Amino acid sequence: MFKTVTLYTNQLKQLRGFYGNVLELPIEQSTDEYFQLSIGTSTLIFRHSDLQTSYHFAINIPGNQFTLAKHWAKERVLLNREASVDEIYYARFEADAFYFEDPTGNVIELIARRNVDKWSDFSIESFLNLSEVSITTPFVEETGEKLQSIGIPISGHVQIKPDELNFLGKKDTFILLVPPQRKWYFSKNMSKTSPLEIVLETGKEILVNREGKITIQ
Questions:
Q1: What span, in angstroms and rounded, lies between the C-alpha atoms of 184 and 190?
Q2: How far apart are CA 135 and CA 8, in angstroms?
Q3: Rg for the chain (alpha carbons), in Å?
Q4: What is the dihedral of CA 78, 178, 97, 101, to 10 degrees?
Q5: 115-143 burial by CB neighbour count: b if 16+ within 10 A, else e?
Q6: Residue 7 in contact with residue 199, Cβ under 8 Å?
Q7: pLDDT digit string (tens) for 121-151?
Q8: pTM score > 0.90 for this model?
Q9: pLDDT given for residue 27 in this prediction
Q10: DSSP state, 195?
Q11: From edge to edge, which strands make up the β-sheet containing 214-216?
Q12: What is the DSSP annotation of 130-166?
């Protein structure tokens, strides 16, 4: 679903060092205003802003590499814990996941789909694509209706629930629609309205401004 996702940060240099040097993701382009990463078949862009922002996103990895992925991550970052554990199985998605944070507190999830295998050592080549991207907005219902109008279905709910975490999408890619001040799983951080831009594989563009208002082009 995700072709390009653009997030904003007031700590561009620190994030460029983290993603490029710590996680060793390939930086395709880099200027004083932005840098661009390859996440499998998706592209992730961090762009400079004066705003203090906060996001959650997930990356799909092969299910049979989950243990290898945890070992790879623990050599680079501190894994987040919830109730004394650092991983979780989501039966609904048939996937295992673990979480960590970048230097600005963005919550990153690696989610291993049990129906996907890759027979090799784990590396950045095992990052398949962006799996989840959060949109935090006080206008949850309105945003959900607009996303559905361009063919992105609700998953798991009959209708949008304004006070809960809503999944919109299908198979292994989802937009997470969430109200502000909701605690992220495996983190002490709370969801915060922040601007972002999503370009879908269909060519549709989803623009979210700093107030959480959505525009679709």
A1: 6
A2: 13
A3: 16
A4: -10
A5: ebebeeebeeebbbbbbbbbbbbebbeeb
A6: no
A7: 999 999 999 999 999 999 999 999 999 999 9
A8: yes
A9: 95
A10: -
A11: 27-30, 34-39, 42-48, 2-9, 196-200, 205-208, 214-216
A12: EEEEEEE-S-HHHHHHHHHHTT--EES-SS--TTS-E
